[in-house]
Amino acid sequence: MPAYLGHSSTLSFSRNVRNLLQQLSPNTDPGSVSTERQDISYKRTLPPIALDLSTIPLPKLPYAEYLTNTVLVHMGSLYSIFDSEIFLQRLRSFYDERDRGLVDKASLWHIQMLLVLAFGKSIQSREHSEMGPSGMSYFTRAIEAMPDIRRLYEDPLLSIEILCLAALFMHAADLLQEAYVTIGQALRISVTKVLNKQFPEAMRSTNFEYQRRLWWTVYCIDRKCAAMLGSPSVMREDDISIPFPELKSGDESQNAFAIHAILSSHLGKILDVIYGVHEQQKNFLVEVKAILSRLAETYVVLREHLPLDVQQPGQPLSRESATLHLLMHQIPAHYLSPVCRVDRSAGSVLASEAFIGSRCFKDQHPPFVISVRINVEDVH
Q1: Where does the Xylanolytic transcriptional activator regulatory domain lie (predicted)?
Q2: What is the pLDDT of residue 329?
Q3: What are the backbone dihedrals phi and psi of residue 342, each rounded to the nearest 5 degrees, phi first?
């Protein structure tokens, strides 16, 4: 799997110089100039993962499969954190070897297994104690066994999956700072493995689509964690060239994933434009109106591909659709509060009247306008 070397990389510069020399002198031996790093003096045997599987009271295989499927159902199509078929196959293989007394050394996958079980158990029981959700014991074992970055780079894609699971669990357990830091690590591994870049088709790996979905999963979690904590995202939108997931008519799963990524990008723009550390922005209201316009366009797409009709109680609601509609109406709260600043001395709202009366606002879809008005009234 390639590693990213930007223009400022000295190794990238050395390779470009070597290529130039070879072009100017065709007789040059390609291997005469080595540009590969030889960190032989720093090679160390990595310590084993500190996880004793024999001491962990794991559930029976059928229930472990049930917990796994519970996680898949509740996460739905909003995230693409692990391949269900591959995971279940490895789970059955692990239990089979365990029943035969063949306890293998702990690996990264075993940490992922514990995180999945932690999620599944917490979702199923929905019981909380002073120690946290009911799956906290599995989660604690997984986090205690989490290796350092060298071990994570032995299988970077699996490590990204693990960090995403850990960040989501932390987020659900209200460990917001921990979730923000954890997903930041997944984001940086993703960047060093070039998941955020678009490549010509001839240069793409065989699992390109899996990597692209994994990237947008990391992206969505990062934006969510940054917004909930009120911290900036460490990834600029301009540094992302991988295309958004496509919308496919009739494919609810794919459309939910795609719209979730789009909504997360709006959230990222809000964090940058409105909450970023900038000088006085002359085009502040213009930027806000542009965000509002893009949100309204996304709302139309959401209603088209994932409609939500709450007026018919007899009809079952789609979890993905309900989640995305809630997110759609939560997002305005992230940018209306600074726009609608209250002048305490005058007892009036400085910008809200002009904002509400703008042509951009009036042109939006009625339910979206209602959501925005509710947030403005909260400011009053």
Answers
A1: 179-251
A2: 86
A3: -95, 130
CA-based nearest residue to 119, from 185, 77, 75: 75
φ/ψ region of 45 (left if φ > 0, alpha if ψ in -120 to 50, else beta) reads beta
Query: In the chain, what is the greatest distance between 2 CA atoms, to the nearest angstrom?
Result: 81
Cβ–Cβ under 8 Å, residues 119 and 79: no
The answer to pTM > 0.85 is: no
Q: CA 202 → CA 2, 12, 38, 317, distances in Å?
A: 14, 21, 29, 42
CB-hemisphere CA count at 13 Å for 96? Answer: 6
CA distances from 288 to 265, 275, 351, 357, 380 (A): 14, 12, 12, 14, 19
Going by the DSSP 8-state scheme, the letter that residue 314 receives in this structure is T
21: helix, coil or strand?
helix
9-10-16-22 Cα dihedral, nearest 10 degrees? -160
Cα–Cα dist 177/149, whole Å: 19
Question: Among residues 77, 72, 124, 122, which one has the least CA distance to residue 323?
Answer: 77
For 166-198, the pLDDT digits (tens) are: 999 999 999 999 999 999 999 999 999 999 988
What are the structural domain ranges in the chain?
Answer: 10-42, 45-243, 252-380
